[in-house]
Amino acid sequence: MIPLNSSFPTDNHGWAELLPARRASSRLTGNHRVPWVVVGAGITGLACARRLAELHPDAEILLLDARCVGQAASGRNSGFVVATSQFPGGVVADQVENYRRVNRINQAGLELLSQQVEANTIDCQWQRQGFYHTAADSVALREHTHYLHYLDTLEIEHRVLDRAILSEHLGTEVYQAGIHIADGALMQPAALVRGLADSLPANVRLHEQSPVLGIGMGTPLTLSLDQAQVKTDRLVLATNYESGKLGFLQSYLVGSTLAGSFTRRLTPAELASLGSLEEWGAISLHGGGATVRLTRDHRISIRNTAEYHGSRLLSDSELLTRQAIHREAFDRRFPQLSEVPFEFAWSGVEGISRNGTNFFGRQHDNIYLAGGYNGSGVSRGTAFGTAIADYASGESSATVSDCLASAPARWMPPRPLLDIAAFFQVRSRFKGVGLDR
User: Fold this and answer.
1) Which residues on neighbouring strands pair with residue 294, listed in sequence order?
2) Does this model's pTM top 0.85?
3) Which end of the chain, N or C, is less packed with Cβ atoms under 10 Å?
4) Domains 2-75+191-253+355-406 and 131-182+256-352+420-437 share a fold
């Protein structure tokens, strides 16, 4: 039996704060024997459990999460479902097929989510009309040029926007140039994962607040929980940056902590000052730039800090400190709304690898893993979760092949060198950031 790290801290912040209270499913108790267990009920785990249920309609699929649904990264991102990834720097000729491969995975995940939202009438503010990539200063403007070349090379539909059009659309004079990508979706992250969890097939049994505390590597595998024991034939780990707590990828995947804030709901007059659109999302072309949204419920969210804290969330006092950074960036973009207060702040953790790759495949006899999305986890996690279910079931598909082709991860040194290296890697994202922050 491998004893595992049982610390899975959370808080009540994030997009779930904007939703009505939800009753969590029960904790797992007792002894169980099932053919399949999926650990992690975020985007990846929900997609995996759903696909396993389709492939094995007569089998019981046990889905476990250490927290409540929506409390981890899947409910704390900024709500962008990406179809087209950005690769910083100029187009590298021998990487064009890799760019296409990554975008095929994104597109597969976007299509799956679109179908699931529609089929299950999930109320998550889903809007599939694309979003903006913006530039305010020199570094981002260079990336703007690179990104245009990339989009033209890959023949991806887009529209180039100047400062005047961006001001008309978004209500801010900060951005000098931008690109609107035609495909991609916006949504409310916590509402999406709640809806996916509440619409799982009947042969999936979800238990929240049920962390796995040990894994026995025999046949069958044995999972130990606080008040339960589970024997299973196959185990899928959909735990992203927390895979290290389960004994996997400790030297390859770490968590970066990001933070953002929401305003209160804007009044009709305040909305009228924000240009011609009622809902939009903008991602800076600078890797350390702000992600900004005007949501369907008339709030502005802004997220523009990232730091390494050993994969932990920020305390309330730390959030207040970061909120001063959010406030400065907000006021710079929207001086006409300087009197509008922030109502909520939140932090979340994204899984990052040293070379930006993802993780997919078998980790041990009958143990499979998918994760590590470097900030693009909604579409990619959906595709990876669905594909790992196929792969573990012996099925093949174009998406399985694309996921298996992920580049090998680069090794990271053990702690404390890991902490130092991760700190500087995350910090390097902000090199040269100015007005884009």
Assistant:
1) 280, 300
2) yes
3) N
4) no
Q: Is the pLDDT of residue 414 over 80?
A: no
Question: What ranges do the domains of the chain cover?
Answer: 2-75+191-253+355-406, 131-182+256-352+420-437
Residue with tokens 């902000």: 430
38 close to 54: Cβ distance less than 8 angstroms: no
- Per-residue pLDDT band at 423 (split at 50, 70, 90): confident
Question: For residue 192, what are its two tokens?
Answer: 């999406």
CA dist., res. 342 & res. 95, Å (int): 42
Name the E strands within 228-308.
228-237, 254-263, 280-284, 291-294, 300-307
Q: Which two tokens stand for residue 133?
A: 């990539």
86-118 residue pLDDT tens: 999 999 999 999 999 999 999 999 999 999 999
**Is pLDDT at 189 greater than 90 in this prediction?**
yes
Nearest CA-CA partner of 362 in 399, 383, 390, 402: 390
Helix 96-119 and helix 138-154, axial crossing angle in degrees, nearest 10: 90
